[in-house]
Design a protein that fits this description.
disordered N terminus, 7 helices, two-stranded antiparallel sheet, Peptide Methionine Sulfoxide Reductase, Chain A, six-stranded mixed β-sheet, globular
Length: 217
């Protein structure tokens, strides 16, 4: 096999297991649960490909819905193609709608840190770039303090001061294109989902079985 052909094969293989590069010209209608009620709060997290992150949070008891989108940058109306350049400042982010009577914000922070490698700068294997960086967003001082306390404890007990997660106040969350919503559930045989998303979800389930919804165990 020639060197050029080898490079082409490798590049194509990497594309198949990358979160970026997939697109659907036709928007898919996604049926989401009604998220507007007085008992629901929203938390926001970024930790790599949002297909993975959304599926993880939707498996957690007390979480009513998770929505993929973009946050953390200054560019107005970001799109999947634009954030893929790494120049918008935004990261792939998931809005987690949860019932605080069933699951606490602190537990969601535990899920966040327990489901990715927070020491990786600008990425989660196999996806790298600022759009895949680790961010724990907060909406008020209490949430900020919970996140920072968690980081302090993990840095002391587990990561030896190497956590690279940003702690950022949420300003604007932009919902991603419809075809990204519930992507893992709707595309179980897609290359990236099979190679990365499902194994990542299964690792989380094995680590936190007590946090799972009954139908996700």
């Amino acid at each position: 096999m020639s060197i050029l052909k080898s490079i082409t094969v490798i590049s194509f293989s990497l594309l198949l297991i990358s979160c970026f590069g997939f697109s659907e010209k036709k928007e898919t209608e996604i049926t989401k649960k009604n998220m507007s009620n007085e008992h629901t709060k929203v938390a926001y997290f970024a930790s790599g490909c949002f297909w993975c992150v959304e599926a993880i949070f939707e498996s957690v008891s007390g979480v009513e819905e998770a929505v993929s989108g973009y946050a953390g940058g200054n560019t107005l109306d970001p799109t999947y193609e634009k954030i893929g350049t790494g120049k918008t400042g935004h990261a792939e982010t998931v809005a987690v709608y949860y019932n605080p009577k069933k699951v606490s914000f602190e537990t969601l922070v535990t899920v966040f840190f327990g489901s990715h490698n927070p020491t990786t700068v600008n990425g989660q294997q196999p996806d790298y770039g600022t759009q895949y960086r680790s961010i724990a967003f907060y909406s008020n001082d209490l949430e900020r303090d919970i996140i920072k306390n968690k980081i302090d404890n993990l840095n002391k007990e587990v990561y030896h001061g190497k956590i690279a997660t940003e702690v950022t106040k949420l300003t604007t969350f932009y919902k991603a294109e419809e075809y990204h919503q519930d992507f893992e559930r709707r595309n179980p045989n897609q290359g990236y989902v099979k190679a990365v998303s499902i194994p990542r979800l299964n690792r989380f389930k094995k680590k936190f079985p007590h946090l799972l919804k009954a139908d996700k165990q």
